[in-house]
Fold these 3 entries.
Entry 1:
Amino acid sequence: MRLVLAYVGTIDGVDHYAPMDKVDSDFCKDRKVLVCDAKGERATRTELQNRSLHKYFNDLSDAFNAAGLSVSVVLKKLFKRPNFSWSAYLVKERIWREVQEQTLGKASTTKLETKDVSMIYESLNAATGTKLGISIPFPDKYSLIEQQLRNK
């Protein structure tokens, strides 16, 4: 598999690159690019997906807290389960991982393939949207880069 990365800027003297897909290629014609060949049969989750996962966990926990939905309320509505505030860790462990294990039989997020992340997110987002009225967009590479540059 070949990965093409486009130069997006410099932070603290370090050049930063973002993955580029076919749609990006026209936009980035005049930018510096890196080409990396990846080995292996399965496409494990990318570093960008990993950061996006953790941002999603955080955003969803913030939305639950802002809506006044305790852990017990959400878990009862989604799965049937006790009463304290949400954190990214709780979203990952009590919601994401449950869906992941039930649908894929994989206990660790490190074992997820790129397609798995999208499938679990879509399923979970549909459930939280329908049952709780909370739908959080999955962070994309542009929002993560923008956040990283803002936090500089």
Entry 2:
Amino acid sequence: MSASRNRASRFLTDTRRAGDLDPVVHSLSNFYREEFVRCQRCLEQQREFYSERAIKDMERALMRVMSQLDSLCSTSDANQIVSSLLRQFNTATGLFTWSDPKQVH
């Protein structure tokens, strides 16, 4: 497993106790975290097409966003902020073009 996947895997679970977060915030944060991990996986599959610096910059940005998801999801405009970030990462990684249209909800 690559080092970036190891770093990403620790963000799949909250480091806070579930009781520390509002259940809605916790669910929202987990949902978006899974989406950002999908972006990271897509980026990993495309590694050969980008420079190492571009990959590192994108991984760093993904890690930063994922590490701040709980606080971002606690804001009143969380959906707008986080979905905007997710759209930007989706565009950069080409996730929408890699997705099977039958799997889109």
Entry 3:
Amino acid sequence: MAGKANSRVTVDTPANDHRVLSDAQYDWPLHVAQNTDGSPLLALAAALGGIADFIEKLIVRWLRQGKQLCIDIDEWLREQNGKTWWVGSPFEGWQPG
């Protein structure tokens, strides 16, 4: 996530996610991405940038997808079992308040 010039650490990432993270690195200042002198501060900046990109671009996307999945399943359950579908189910007690 910090790029080859900044770290030997690699993280296995699915191809589509890797592409998103690689594209994000194009927004980094070139001297940080290349770190031609091997500055430890620039390496740390790149590592922090990689972590931030991971959180912003992937984790937030996954959270939004999970949110939408919950909404879609709730709508389906309401259609199948009524507006209080959870009553008498293992999910009773999870409702707010």
